[in-house]
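We store chain and fold; thus.
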Amino acid sequence: MQKGKGVETFRLISAANKWLNSQEGLSSSEWVCAIKMIANVAPVRAMPGRSLDGSRCRHCNETETLPHVLGYSAHGALMRNSRHNVIRKMIADTARQKKYKVGEEMTCIAQGGSIRRFDILIIDERNQKAWMIDPTIRFETCKDQGAKVQQEKDDIYRPCIPHLKLQYNLKDIEIIGVLIGSRGIIFKELESFRKKIDFFRDNIILHTIKSSIRILNSHSYSPG
């Protein structure tokens, strides 16, 4: 059963869901499409009764589910990259406005010599501490998804901390597993970090929803 998959995650940060009732920031058509995405009844071929041509993606040979369209189909790759880059810039620009030192599209060296890349380093020079951030946008599946992404990012970037501490003269670096749901759901890891530097979550939510709608529409209406 795919209908409603991941909808339980909307309970995690209920304050981030005000657009559901107010429609604030969304046109009527965008709001309707967003509700369909939440319920996982958006018009994709894998939805029972939707297509007479089978459930295969109209742009590749995978099953055309909403998670596939929003997160994996090669047809939407450039739009997904743009969605990610705008959110990265939103977070970085907010940190700059708060007078933190900020670097984007960073490179670091892990113990063992391998080179790794991440999106944002926010440095609190007064306290010699920093936040290492690599935002990820994924289709929401379960309430523990944020914790899993946090562990994933920690495993990848923990070996880079000694190098970054030495390079930027830091005493402490915290890795933040920023997971944003492709249907606009915010997980507690992002909400906890948001409170530390006081940035406005609604812009990120609305941009994610609008971008995902454009990805879905492009997938559905572009020639195969």
Summary: The mean pLDDT is 88. The longest strand covers residues 115-124. The longest helix spans residues 77-97. Residues 7-77+207-221 form one domain.
